[in-house]
Specification:
This protein is α/β, with parallel strands linked by helices. It has two domains: 192 residues, Type I PLP-dependent aspartate aminotransferase-like (Major domain) (Aspartate Aminotransferase, domain 2), CATH 3.40.640.10; 117 residues, Aspartate Aminotransferase, domain 1 (Alpha-Beta Complex). It contains 15 helices and 13 strands. The protein has a seven-stranded mixed β-sheet with strand order 1-9-8-5-4-2-3, sandwiched between helices. Strands 7-6-11 form a three-stranded antiparallel β-sheet, with no helix packed on it. Strands 10-12-13 form a three-stranded antiparallel β-sheet. Helix 11 packs parallel to helix 15. The model has no long low-confidence stretch (mean pLDDT 95). The chain binds pyridoxal-5'-phosphate. The site of pyridoxal-5'-phosphate has 15 residues, from helix 3 and helix 4. Pyridoxal-5'-phosphate binds next to helix 3 and helix 4.
């Protein structure tokens, strides 16, 4: 049976052909920088090899500007953020999430701010924008920075403006499953000249992947675009399933972004608005189908947000039912994922109790993430909704 993968993107042969030009065109990164800067409406744009490198370099730049050391972040997000915070010599401080939109709880953030808070990391999880991001900026003291982690939310909007433009710094990821996938990559955006200068200096010190590494990334990108087709994915799944692991990250490699990836990024960005719209429509279709269904929590949407969903999160309150739904979706050929299996305080020893951040724990225990990428078809959305509502 064909399987619909949890991640996907509409990649054309012309994107691949154009990407190959990046091997010869040394100015590809510069050109992508220009169009990305215009797209995001941010003065400074700096590319890196990954979203986590982007986050780390952003933290390092902030650390230079202040003697404060605490970084507030949601208790349910990518574990690699904790690794980057520690690597930067800073202290992670968690706050609970809200079960309304699955992002950090703004009241909890307010209570967490101390005289030692360097910055607040607002991660727009699953592409759902934290609509109160402006409020966080306003309520925080002026010398507390705001980083928007848009690794999962590229293309999502609040009041018409793209996420990543509300704080002091925005970071994005171009990894395989992200909204603009160039098989790895990350970007830091900021309007602050001082921060930009420090970030640029750090990036200048990073190594450039060699030609063979660039070739390998390019081949993997081609393989990825093939794997997004259900017929090919079904075969690949059988092979890759054995190698899947959910190990806790301990470190990450840092390098410059490659011109080949930049060339691909520039191609994909041309059709990006269409793909974001599709992500929005797909997510909203599932949302409508599952709204107010017993035992299922779906994210609430403020009227001013337009999420380019990366995956669509639902929380199933009964764990046994959650497992049955996972099985029903898999049997129907729909890949689904539990994302990060635990909240951050259950993964790392950060000095918290098991029972702290109850919403993050409820969320991690009951989460099923669903595919809503641009390749998901309407009949597959119906299959998803049916598998969930009819599995009791
Ligand atoms: C919220 C969030 N932040 C940061 C990252 C790191 O991005 P990358 O995988 O490009 O290092 C991820 C990756 O999944 C993420 O989901």
């Amino acid at each position: 049976m064909n399987r619909r993968s949890i991640i996907g993107h509409d990649i054309h042969l012309s994107d691949i052909i154009s990407g190959s030009k990046g091997f010869l065109d040394g100015s590809a990164t510069e050109k992508f920088r220009e169009i990305f800067s215009a797209f995001i409406n941010s003065k400074h744009v700096h590319f890196t090899n990954s979203g986590i490198t982007a986050f780390y370099l952003a933290l390092k730049a902030l650390k230079k500007k202040s003697s404060k050391r605490e970084v507030i972040l949601p208790a349910y997000t990518a574990p690699s953020l904790v690794v980057a915070i520690k690597k930067a010599g800073l202290e992670p401080r968690l706050c609970d999430i809200s079960l309304r939109d699955f992002n950090m709880d703004v009241h909890a953030v307010e209570e967490m701010i101390t005289a030692n808070t360097l910055c607040i990391v607002c991660a727009h999880m699953f592409g759902i924008p934290l609509s109160e991001v402006k409020k966080i900026k306003e309520m925080a003291p002026e010398d507390v920075f705001l980083i928007e982690d848009c690794a999962q939310s590229m293309g999502s909007r609040i009041g018409g403006s793209l996420t990543g433009t509300f704080g002091d710094i925005g970071i994005f990821s171009f990894n395989r499953g992200k909204n603009l996938p160039t098989y790895g990559g990350g970007v830091i955006v900021t309007d602050a000249d001082g921060l930009s200068g420090d970030i640029e200096n750090s990036i200048n010190g990073l190594g450039v992947p060699g030609t063979s590494d660039q070739l390998s990334l390019f081949i993997k990108f081609i393989a990825l675009s093939a794997a997004f087709r259900p017929s090919i994915y079904s075969i690949l799944c059988l092979i890759t399933q054995k190698f899947r692991e959910d190990s806790v990250p301990t470190d990450f490699e840092m390098a410059k972004y490659t011109p080949v990836q930049a060339q691909i990024g520039a191609e994909l960005l041309q059709r990006f608005d269409d793909s974001s719209e599709r992500r929005y429509k797909n997510g909203m279709t599932i949302l409508k189908a599952l709204n107010n269904k017993d035992g299922i929590i779906v994210p609430g949407m403020e009227v001013n947000v337009e999420p380019a969903f990366n995956r669509f999160p639902v929380v199933v309150q009964d764990i046994n039912r959650m497992e049955r739904i996972e099985d029903a979706l898999t049997s129907a050929g729909i890949e689904n994922s539990r994302m990060y299996l635990k909240p951050l305080h259950h993964i790392f020893d950060l000095g918290y109790k098991e029972t702290d951040f109850p919403n993050a724990s409820i969320f991690a225990n009951g989460l099923i993430a669903l595919p809503v990428h641009p390749l998901v078809k309407d009949d597959e959305l119906n299959i998803i909704a049916e598998a969930i509502t009819e599995t009791k």
